[in-house]
Fold this protein.
Amino acid sequence: MHYQFPADFWWGSASSAPQTEGASLQFGKSETIWDRWFAESPTRFHRQVGPAHTSGFYQHWREDIALLKQLRHNTFRTSIAWSRLIPDGRGAVNPEAVRFYNQVIDEMLSQGITPFINLFHFDMPMAMQQIGGWENREVVEAYAQYAQTCFRLFGDRVKHWFTFNEPIVPVEGGYLYDFHYPCVVDFRRAATVAFHTMLAHARAVQLFREGEYAGEIGIILNLTPSYPRSTHPADQQAAHIADLFFNRSFLDPALLGHYPAELVALLEEHQQLPVSQPGDSALLAEGRVDVLGVNYYQPRRVKCRDALVNPHSPFMPEWFFDHYAMPGRKMNPYRGWEIYEKGIYDILSNLRQHYGNPRCFISENGMGVEDEQRFEQNGQIQDDYRIDFVREHLIWLHRALQEGSHCLGYHMWTFIDNWSWSNAYKNRYGFVQLDLDSQQRRVKKSGEWFARVASERGFTQ
Ligand code: BG6
């Protein structure tokens, strides 16, 4: 069967400034929470490799953009580092940063690659964290001013803006499950962080529209379709609540401009609602996006709780469901994540049926593999598993398109093996292999395959 995609489909990959640039405390850039966490607790990072060890995009940008072209990308996402552009979080702009991002944007355009620019990829400047990070409403306005600075500096050339990548991850990691700085475990503080992040998003969207910049603005959400163990009503309800917490808490405000009433009522009942101010609802309503990026890696499988909740235990989403390891599910044995390709179709169908079929695209999807050099033959990583992974997801995406989904493209995570937070280089995701010591780049088999698919806008299977 042949799978043909639209002529103007976006083929590309995604990355982020903090994971690729390097030069982490150089050329005027200030510390982020990652530099600080690594300095304080290096053992929390895989093999104690910290944020300074990247693929060095700050030096290798021209070479990397040439590789993107070789991989036949027509689009590419990276981010601007707030801590590089405005080292104190607010106030003076760093001219070195403006020069760097101008070069990158101009080079991409001259190579026929449309830049997609994200403004925040987990990299809170330490100057902002010191005053409370997203818990402090002042940071909402500081972020909005930073966003506006980006629109003014680069908006003449950048036409695809994204306010946040996976805004739920700093909430979960930093304030609920202890895998990001500042390692707090407190639901109410997490809810405040989530709420203020969405206010910051909405303020940036508002300023983008007031400034009448050309192009579009969106947000990138990691969606994890929530599947119940069975058709039993208690399992169904468990999946429904997990969906409210982990998907709709960001999806509804981004697409509908308000939170799900049921989630608000539930948090109110348990005294977990963040403090709001008059005008917040109106602001949120202005944050409805032009385009939605969907990151999809794995589904969430849940069942009703086996045991009653201890009412004295701290409030957590897991009060309402248990995680469920479905027997026979297909796993990525290296990353420990389930591979469920149909999830991509289910997400797109849900957007079509329940959210008015918004303009959207798959903004991340990918397969992390440990010790990938094992698969090297004749100087090239033979990552057939990654080819299968991408192909199977594209087949489901194609089916959603046939049924009318407004999905505009597919971006892989990621272009080149990159540093990934506390996992550092544990999981390799790239189309291009990175030798960390020599900084040498070598295209993997999957990169060659993707280049063919992108240039033919499809494949036969
Ligand atoms: C995505 C993030 O969720 O997952 C990326 O947007 C991250 O920043 C990627 O690198 C892979 O994560 P990990 O933990 O498997 O290396």
Notes: The longest strand covers residues 216-222. The chain has one domain: 2-460. The CA atoms of residues 159 and 384 lie 35 Å apart. The pocket of 6-O-phosphono-beta-D-glucopyranose is lined by residues 16, 19, 165-166, 222, 295, 335, 364, 368, 413, 420, 423, 427 (CB under 6 Å).
